[in-house]
Design goal:
Blueprint (H helix, E strand, L loop, with lengths): L2 E4 L3 H10 L9 E4 L3 H11 L2 E3 L11 E4 L6 H14 L5 E4 L6 H7 L6 E5 L9 E7 L5 H12 L2 E5 L6 H9 L1 H18 L4 H21 L4 H8 L5 H11 L2 H24 L2
Helix pairs in contact: 6-11, 7-8
Bound molecules: NADPH dihydro-nicotinamide-adenine-dinucleotide phosphate (NDP) and (2S)-3,4-dihydro-2H-pyrrole-2-carboxylic acid.
The site of NADPH dihydro-nicotinamide-adenine-dinucleotide phosphate has 28 residues, from helix 1 and helix 3.
Length: about 270
Amino acid sequence: MKIAFIGGGNMAAALIAGLAGRVTPGANIHVVDPNPAALEHLQREYGLTTAAAIDAAVTAAEVIVLAVKPQNMRDVAATLQPLLALVGHQPLVVSIAAGIRARDLSRWLGGYGAIVRCMPNTPALIGMGITGMVAYDGVTAAQRTMADQMLAGVGTTMWLDDEGLIDAVTAVSGSGPAYVFYFMEAMQQAGVELGLTPAQSLALAQGTFAGAAALAGRSEEPLSTLRERVTSKGGTTYAALTSMEAAGVKDAVTTAVKAAAARGRELGDELGAQ
Ligand SMILES: NC(=O)C1=CN([C@@H]2O[C@H](COP(=O)(O)OP(=O)(O)OC[C@H]3O[C@@H](n4cnc5c(N)ncnc54)[C@H](OP(=O)(O)O)[C@@H]3O)[C@@H](O)[C@H]2O)C=CC1
Ligand SMILES: O=C(O)[C@@H]1CCC=N1
């Protein structure tokens, strides 16, 4: 599979790390980014080809991943559109941008239909990502399979019929690793304040997230049951959870996740109106 990335920043680098040598040889990956430092690192690490600006090399790929910020997407589409119009085959365009709707991207690409909109997350870097995906009108069955193979190579895929749900995916799993790191940071800090070294406290917090996430993944029980099994009556967990409830932590988290979804919709409205 020949893949071109437009944008070689954080999320592209995470995807490339998971893809190179696993889904396709690094030499089959081409990355366009104006920052030489980012490209040099990717080139050195994975042996891929790079360019500072979009040119015809991009359309030689079967899959073109648009991995620029949502605010740059329209300009990128304007540059890409005449190049796509020149090629005989229709490369699959995969957008990972938060908010940008497939219909707006299609319009910016001159009515192009072979678009998959998806929302990956950074654990793709270690092959443990999860990606929500939706196919636009002109995607062939073979292209859908190709998109699935690409993203299944860096973790789990979840296809959605309703593109409107991608903002929810963005809020839960696209942004989600940041919430987990935030929670881990707080747990690490508390451990240090209680006398552990930063390394000890980090190992305990990280190991706890890894173990609890794996347990939740393997268990048939609801999360609330798993939580209750940790919570001895009158014990330490009860003291912590009572403190969290009093501080409104659960409400704060659900409100925060909804704020992420609202921002996704807002980006789609703002940028799609152009
Ligand atoms: N980070 C994450 O965890 C996730 C991000 N996403 C989505 O991925 C996209 C990229 O995010 P992220 O990687 O975090 O952002 P970054 O800013 O790290 O990466 C974007 C890169 O694209 C470059 N760029 C800008 N314009 C062009 C252009 N015309 N051609 C080629 N490259 C260009 C940027 O350069 P410069 O900085 O100089 O502008 C930058 O290096 C966003 O749309 C985001 O919504 C989706 C899921 C998760
Ligand atoms: O923060 C953002 O907008 C991007 C989308 C999901 C994760 N990072």
